[in-house]
Design brief:
This protein is of the alpha/beta class. About 50% of the residues lie in helices and about 15% in strands.
Amino acid sequence: MLGPVILAASRSDRMRRLISAAPVTKQVVDRFIPGETVADIVPIVSELTAKGLELTMDVVGEDITTPEQATAARDAYLELIERLKGLDLGERVEMSVKLSMFGQALEGGHELALANVRPVVEAAAAIGTTVTLDAEDHTTLDSMFAIHDELRKDFPQTGCVIQAYLFRTEADARRLAGNGSRVRIVKGAYKEPAEVAYQNKQEIDKAYVRILKTLMDGEGYPMIGSHDPRLISIGQELARKAGRKPDEYEFQMLYGIRSDEHLRLAAEGHRMRVYTAYGTDWYGYFMRRLAEKPANLRFFLRSMVSKG
C-alpha cells in the first residue's frame, strides 16, 4: 500500500526538495506535464486536437497561502483562455480548476474562491467552452458543490467531479444526474480516512460502477475518468443500455498515460478528452499521479535507476 505513503510525501517539503533536485525528475515529469507556460502548451493543444482528441486544461498548483496568489491563479487561467480564443476550438478544449488554487482554504475562502473562479467561467463561456470544478479532499466538497450550484445559475454547463471512493458520492451522484449537468467520475486520489471512504480497491471499483450507472441513467452528461480497461468497457456497456449516443458521454484520461488508448477510443467515434496539466508548481500533481497507479511509480523508479 504505497499510495498513502506517496500522498504523505506530496505534502513534505523535504521530499519536494529531494525529488525536485534529482537529475531524472524533469524527464519523468515531462511525461505527465508537457509544459510550464502557455506558450509551451498551445502547440500541445493543437497537436492533440488535430488527432481528434479533446482536452481539459489544468494550471497546476494548490498550496495557496495568500489572496495575491489566488488572484495570480485566476489570471493564469484568464491568460490561457485568451490564447485559446485564437485557436477557435470551442468546447473541444475546456478548463479544469481546483478551488484551492483560488483561495478556498484561506480566511473567507468560500467567497474568495467563488469571486476568483467566476471570471474564469465567464471568459470560458465567451469563447464557447466551459469549466469543470475538480474534487479535492472531502473537507472541501460542501464548498465546492455550493460554488458549482451557484455558477450553474448563470452558466449551467459548468461541470464538477465526484470521487467513487467516498461514501457520500452515491447520494451526490443522484442529486447531480439531472438535465444539463456535466459530471466527471473518478476513483479518487487523496488520502482519506476509513470513516469517509472505501479503502479496498474492489469496493472502490464496485462503487464506481454503481455511481456511473446512476449518471448514465440520468439526464446529464457523464464523463468517465478512468484508465482501467475493465471500467472503460463497463462504461461503454452502461451507455449502450441507457440508450446513449456517442456524443452523450465521454471518456477522460490523463496526458501521458495510455496515450494509445486515447487514440483508439477517438478512432472508434468516442469523445475522448485528455486531462492536460501545465505550470511550474508541478510537485503535488506529479506525486498524486505516482500514488494513483503502481505502474507510474515503477516508471519513475526505473528512470531514476537507469539515469542515475
